Amino acid sequence: MNKETGVLYFSPTNTTKKICKAIALGRGSKAPQILDITLPKARAELMANPKAMMAAIDHLVVGIPVHSGKLPIQVLECLNAVEGYKKECTAIVAYGNRGYGIALSSLVEILSKNGFKVAAAGAFIGQHSYSDIIPIAMGRPDKSDIAKAIKLGENSLDVDSWLSLRDIPDQIDTISSSEKYTALKPYFNVKKCVKCGQCAENCPVGVLSPDTGTYLSRAAKKQCIGCMACVGSCKKTAKSARVNLIVKLVMQNMLKQASRERKEPLMIVSEK
Ligand SMILES: Cc1cc2nc3c(=O)[nH]c(=O)nc-3n(C[C@H](O)[C@H](O)[C@H](O)COP(=O)(O)O)c2cc1C
Fold this sequence. Notes:
Blueprint: E1 5-9, H1 15-26, E2 33-36, H2 40-48, H3 50-54, E3 59-65, H4 73-81, E4 88-95, H5 103-113, E5 117-125, H6 143-155, H7 174-177, E6 187-188, H8 198-201, H9 218-223, H10 229-233, E7 239-240, H11 245-254, H12 256-260, E8 266-269
Parallel strand pairs: 1-2, 1-3, 3-4, 4-5
Antiparallel strand pairs: 5-8, 6-7
The protein binds flavin mononucleotide.
């Protein structure tokens, strides 16, 4: 049976995107239909017409990064709008080698509730968004991760039973069980800014001014999710991940274990 694979991801620093595309490749799809919901405009478009999006897709690979052991709150509304119509999907989270908390089970729960049949699931490792402060999982997903993602894609073909929440292990800790999201705001060096507007254009929550690169308002600053997409998009390094010594020491302590050991992807496929 010919199965059209689609890929839907939220990926401020592009690691989730790479993993999802490798899974699609494993499913035999070199040029899958891409639904990139990283930017607010794309999320609004999808929510306005979610049915049209699924029309040409038989299997949807859904990839979301882990923020504070959970799914980023900003994607929930959009994910909840995507109806599965009993089609198949693969649920993926990308995390920065610390822990994926309850993110994968939350994703599987949302997709199942929306009428998808979850054929496969996985928690992959991507370079931590705060690696400019403390290097963690540098260069990941690497060759070995991509090979595993391709394998998961292959294994997700032709399954005929579906995963449920019981199949998905959580990694519950104080961070994932708290409702709080801890995010570092990027540092902005106004003197280096050439007002190109790239940071604002690439901001997944639309909180930056395209004219000045500063937050649109005090309320907008509070909404910043600290994803570091603006840092990656700034060619002049006016935006950077920089913190004072005290914050650095706290982070080093919190992420000590993650910076030392290498975790491997978790891959789950429903049994035949
Ligand atoms: C606000 C925030 C919170 C994060 N929380 C976690 C976490 O709880 N556990 C973890 O291992 N990585 C965490 N990360 C790291 C990201 O999950 C990881 O870098 C991921 O690969 C980023 O995906 P992307 O490149 O698609 O944006 C966090 C990153 C950000 C920006």
